[in-house]
Specification:
By secondary structure, this protein is mainly α. Helix content is 75%, strand content 0%. The relative contact order is 0.13.
């Protein structure tokens, strides 16, 4: 505006194109976050850890597949694969969970997201879905390699069909791992703006709960307490999932030894569902109150 009060037209125009809306914004955030989890579109440094973790997971699968081809039988089942590399899954989630949410808190960009049609709940659920998807892909890719090795070595259509069923069970169990570990990592990451602090808290939580479960397990077997022997698995996420495995998933050749659950199998399932619900509700509550 000039001193005489005249408004000059300098060429700005209103946007008249299509409005893609809330769904498109949520999908875009999910895809962007999933790409970020594996370092796509970022520097080479950001790709080191996720692809190092993926490389280890794939290497284990290749070795297991090669040994199976030589031995003529599975040495590690599809459902036990996640249990075997659970520490790697913990570290992966401890890094990518804060990476996806803590950076936004620290840089103060949340008002930009919330100024769009996207709601706070949309943002939280998109970030949770991306973390869970990344953790599931970390497990699903090696399981697929194991399946291809097993299918090519099968003796006929019946054996291939059996292999498909076992592979599907492994993918389902991997999804439970991704859901629980990803939900915990995203929730903790949303509470701290510093990624290193959030990652340390996540890793410490899994380590502490596993240690507590181990101590209680030792006491249970030392005292010959059947109730404690069946219930100690409820004390940590990893043993909780092993308990669900023992209760709800059929045995496969190459299964690792699972924890005893006795008649408490349904309790393990209910606790898993409750843990997922609590983590999700707390995450939603966190973003309803976040200031920036």
């Amino acid at each position: 505006m000039s001193e005489s009060g005249v408004i000059h037209d300098i060429g700005y125009q209103r946007y008249s194109g299509p409005r893609l809306g809330r769904g498109y914004a949520v999908r875009s955030l999910y895809v962007h976050s999933l790409r970020t989890a594996f370092g796509f579109g970022r520097s080479a440094k950001a790709k080191i850890f996720p692809w190092f973790a993926a490389g280890i997971a794939l290497l284990v699968a290749v070795i297991v597949t090669a040994v199976r081809a030589q031995a003529g039988r599975p040495v590690l089942s599809y459902t036990s694969y996640a249990d075997a590399i659970s520490v790697l899954v913990v570290l992966f989630c401890a890094v990518i969970g804060p990476e996806l949410v803590s950076r936004d808190l620290r840089s103060g960009v949340l008002p930009l997201y919330f100024s769009r049609p996207m709601t706070r709940a949309d943002y939280a659920l998109a970030k949770l879905a991306a973390t869970v998807s990344a953790a599931w892909l970390l497990l699903a890719m090696p399981l697929t390699i194991m399946f291809l090795g097993g299918a090519f070595g099968a003796g006929g259509a019946k054996e291939i069909w059996t292999e498909i069923g076992r592979y599907a069970a492994g993918l389902g169990y991997a999804a439970l791992y991704a859901l629980l570990f990803g939900a915990i990592a995203t929730l903790v990451g949303s509470l701290a703006s510093r990624r290193a602090v959030a990652a340390a808290i996540i890793a410490g939580f899994f380590l502490m709960t596993s240690a507590v479960a181990g101590v209680v397990s030792g006491i249970a077997f030392a005292t010959d307490s059947t109730t404690l022997q069946h219930a100690f698995g409820l004390l940590s996420p990893a043993t909780l999932l092993q308990g669900v495995h023992a209760w709800a998933i059929a045995d496969q050749p190459g299964d690792l030894e699972t924890i005893p659950v006795g008649d408490l199998g349904p309790i393990y399932g209910l606790v898993l569902v409750a843990a997922l619900a609590v983590c999700t509700l707390l995450l939603l509550a966190r973003y309803r109150k976040v200031a920036r």
